[in-house]
Amino acid sequence: MSESETLVQSRENTPSNVQQSRKLGRRALFTGIVALAVPAVALELERQIQGGVAAQTSTEATATVGTPASGASPVAITGTPVPSANPVVTPALGQLTLVEDQRPTYPGLPRPGGELRLPLGAGENSNFSPPSFRQDFQIMASYLDPLIWIDEVTMDPLPWLAESWKWSQGGTRLSLKLRRDVLWHNGDKFTAEDVVFSFIAYRDDFDSAVRNIFSPLLSVEASDDYTVVAILSNPDGNFIRNACSQFMMQESHFRRHWNSRDVGQRTLSDFNWSKSTPIGTGPWKVAKREKNEISFSRNEDYWNEAPYTESLTLNVIEDPSERIRQWISGDVDVIWPFSPGDLPSVTSSPGTLYAADTASVMFAAFNFNNPNRIDPFLFKDINLRRALSLAIDRNRYAREVFAGFTVPDAAGTIAQPWAHESTISNPPLDLDAARKLLVDGGYRDLNGDGILESPSGETLKLRLIVRNTARPDLIALLKSIVADLAEVGIELNVRELSPTRFDGEWIDTHNFDLIAYAYNLYPTFTDFDLYGTDWDIRTNIQGWNPGGYSNQEVDQAIRAALIEPNSDRQAALLRKLQRVANEDLFALWFGFPRDLVLVRPGVQGFQPNKQWQTWGTARLWKESN
After folding, report:
1. Counted domains in the chain
2. Which long-range contacts (CB under 8 A, 24 or more apart) does 428-435 make?
3. Cβ within 8 Å of residue 610, ≥6 positions away
4. Which residues contact 112 (CB under 8 A, 6 or more apart)?
5. Do the bridges between strand 284-290 and strand 293-298 make them parallel or antiparallel, or are there none, so unpaired?
6. Is the dihedral of CA 24, 27, 33, 37 positive or negative?
7. Are residues 455 and 376 in the same domain?
């Protein structure tokens, strides 16, 4: 029996794992990144992250390949095309040039050489364990490669370290064919044993932040040096986009450490990183590590073309104003995330501002069963929910909070282009229509205080909760709609709660009328536990669904989508889910915010990436060195 076969035997489920799985949600590892920014690459480390925008986030980005049906095989790509034309730009903001093209092109040929410098937001980056996601994602994206690439714009899966894949046995057997020209940074060949180990580590590492997306994995083995076969317990329509897009790890680098631990106690988080240089297959090699700085050298043997600059340096700069100061002085080449509120401080300096589309959502879900109210089921009144939505001036907060860099009309929580239902949208502001719905529903101001009472006599003073660690633009947005709702006789109280208290209220007491979230998304749908009846937190300790939402059509669409391996059919099911949930108005939708990326003059080649905007550092170059 090979070591890979031995590895597949253990589905580790210790008390520590069970406790952690209770905390893990389906949101991105990073929740909100206007404060500091993060992708949707891993399940949140803690469900606490779910409503916020901490050092990057929620989590809790496509081509035309899609998740192949049984027998299909994507065509491999051989490299990233070199940009060749001019960016499409809109009028400049001061000395800034605004670029809104999601696949910008550039004149001339890239110029090699020079150093690229980017800031990091997180202060502790010593744990290089890929499964734990305990360091700034920029570091991992620099020296590691995913098995499957997620297209920067469409969020479709594309060949990468795996050049093709095929489903069989009803979507429970996945065969992946690997490239044969990939080398680890120490010169060893990348083989199927590395994929086997990576899958097992993501599933069984007790500190894994993404164990849930590998939970269907029953076994994985190398049928030859460049073929991997994974067997799932059930069809999983998300496995290619979510699980196969994780970073690969070198099996020989970790074998001894992993096997020295008992089953259930294995983790890469306690690997001796201080005495071992992290190894990947990515475009950059780890060169030097210090507490607040990590530097990389160009991987000359990179299979997909070596980086254009000689080196990449990442510095911890947590203060946004200091980042801006260093960008102006030329000590930092790219800033992301960048807040619209900071635009006045940089418009007098030349540079390029990229407005990048995201797979990010903002919304406030209704509580359909609030035991703290006289009428716990107040929000089962669809006309009340619709009146609130009609009363919101989304164009105003788009201007005042986001400086126009958002899509306020976008509805729902599925922002991935391949699955988003573009026919649904938020209604325009209509105070008269909102008031009519309220009057027709029997809501009256009985005491002349300007606040309506419900038919049961309960004052419409609504309690909205949000984490105080949530992204600042979400909190600003919520405060802005207080005046909107007051126009129709509804008092909204926005309560910014500590993570501990926030969790206590949505998990235990359910003392809220609306609960607000902002997070980035995985490449595919993982919000089943937000909508599904089976995941109501009141009846399922492993659930989410904070408002106790229940809709039979939504449940049916979720169940079918989760086991549908064909991308087109899965997308159709998800579009139906969106139409139904929007008609039923699950939440107040606040649109899809855009990311701003600030780039120094003379730095060329930037390409937006919905998973992580600054992933493509290898394709950046400087006009002069």
Report:
1. 2
2. 429/390, 429/391, 429/392, 429/393, 429/394, 429/395, 429/484, 430/390, 431/390, 431/391, 431/487, 431/488, 433/387, 433/390, 434/386, 434/387, 434/388, 434/390, 434/391, 434/488, 435/387, 435/488, 435/489
3. 61, 150, 152, 153, 155, 356, 357, 358, 359, 416
4. 308, 309, 310, 621
5. antiparallel
6. positive
7. yes
Q: Is the pLDDT of residue 306 over 80?
A: yes
For residue 531, tell me if it sits in a domain: no
Average confidence (pLDDT) over 49-62: 30
Neighbour order of strands in the sheet with 293-298 = 115-120, 311-316, 293-298, 284-290
Q: Is the pLDDT of residue 195 over 70?
A: yes
Strand partners, 598: 335, 353
CATH number at residue 368: 3.10.105.10
DSSP-derived pairing of the beta strands 311-316 and 115-120: parallel
Look up tokens 């992993």; give the residue.
Answer: 258
Nearest to 462 by CA among 478, 440, 439: 478
Which among 59, 28, 155, 146 has a CA at the least distance from the CA of 571?
A: 155
* Inter-CA distances, 166 with 67, 68, 229, 349, 560, Å: 9, 7, 10, 51, 20
Contact indicator for 516, 366 with CB cutoff of 8 Å: no
Q: For residue 18, give both structure tokens.
A: 């069970």
Three-state SS annotation for 128-168:
CCCCCCCCCHHHHHHHCCECEEECCCCCCEEECCEEEEEEE
Taking the C-alpha atoms of residue 83 and residue 321, their distance in angstroms, rounded to an integer, is 32
Percent of residues, the chain, with pLDDT higher than 70? 85
Task: Report pLDDT for 547.
Answer: 98
Helix H or strand E segment including 15 = helix 15-23
β-bridge mates for residue 294, sequence order: 289, 314
Work out the angle at residue 393's Cα, subtended by the Cα atoms of residues 389 and 395, and round it to the nearest 5 degrees. Answer: 125
Using one digit for the tens of pLDDT, what is the confidence trace for 401-414?
A: 999 999 999 999 99
Distances in Å between the alpha carbon of 132 and those of 135, 291, 301, 569?
Answer: 8, 19, 28, 33
In the predicted structure, residue 2 carries a pLDDT above the cut 80: no
C-alpha 445/C-alpha 453 separation (Å) is 6
- In 3D, which of 345, 387, 385 has the Cα closest to residue 364? 385
Domain assignment present for 68? no
Same domain, 220 and 116: yes
Q: Are residues 217 and 185 in the same domain?
A: yes
Summarised one tens digit per residue, pLDDT across range 249-258 is 999 999 999 9
Q: What is the pLDDT of residues 424-445, one digit of tens each?
A: 999 999 999 999 999 999 999 9
Same-domain status, 404 and 489: yes
Distances (CA, A) of 399 to 361, 517, 521: 17, 20, 24
CB 365 within 8 A of CB 546: yes
Whats the size of the chain, residue-wise? 625
Question: Can you give the pLDDT at residue 104?
Answer: 97
Task: List, in sequence order, every beta strand (DSSP E) within 299-435.
Answer: 311-316, 334-335, 351-356, 360-366, 406-407
CA dist., res. 350 & res. 580, Å (int): 47
Residues 432 and 395 in one domain: yes
**How does 120-136 read in b/e, with b if 16+ C-beta sit within 10 Å?**
bbbeebebbbbbbbbbb
Instruction: Tokens for 605, please give them.
Output: 């080649």
Residue-range definition of the domain harbouring residue 133: 3-25+91-354+610-622
